[in-house]
Amino acid sequence: MEKQDPPVSRFLRLPVELRLCIYSECSALTLLQLSHTCLRARTEINSIPRILKESYGYLPPSPKRSSSKTILSVANVGKIQTAIEAVFYAAQMKQYMIKNCCREYCEMALRERSELEERENRKRVGYDGRCCKSWLRGRSIKNGIPV
User: What is the full DSSP assignment across the chain?
Assistant: First the structure.
């Protein structure tokens, strides 16, 4: 029996130009998820920095960690647009939770930025030291949920 190649998804059968238009309408969190579906999507999304920079909720990397090549990661998700995304994000973050608290992950993500950025980020998102699980529960989604 010959080994068959896996079927190509319908989405990847669309012309590249159309996929790029679709990516430009997606939030940073959606782009992150799409970029982890297959190598082709990851390459397309990360190859055009404008798509990332203009996506809702995108948080650019710190100047210290910045390079000429931008690779989208969870550290680049600064806001969540919808309640559905918030539920999805919280579910995905469970893998980082230790003893029902993800503070260790939150602190690690904040330490990746410079101290100045850390203070500014805490001020900007209203982070008050609580774990993000309890913090997310108390946030309004009216103008986007900072993460």
Answer: -PPPPPPPPHHHHS-HHHHHHHHHTS-HHHHHHHHTT-HHHHHHHHH-HHHHHTSTTB-PPPTTT--SS----GGGB-EE-SHHHHHHHHHHHGGG-BTTB-HHHHHHHHHTS-HHHHHHHHHHHT--SS-HHHHHHT---TT-EE-
Rounded to two decimals, the pTM is 0.61
Structure tokens at 109: 């993500």
The C-alpha atoms of residue 99 and residue 102 are separated, in whole angstroms, by 8
- Give the residues across from 58 on adjacent strands: 77
CA–CA separation, 86 and 66 (whole Å): 27
State yes or no: pLDDT of 133 exceeds 50. Answer: no
Express each pLDDT in 31-44 by its tens digit: 999 999 999 999 99
Locate the domains of the chain by residue range. 1-77, 79-147
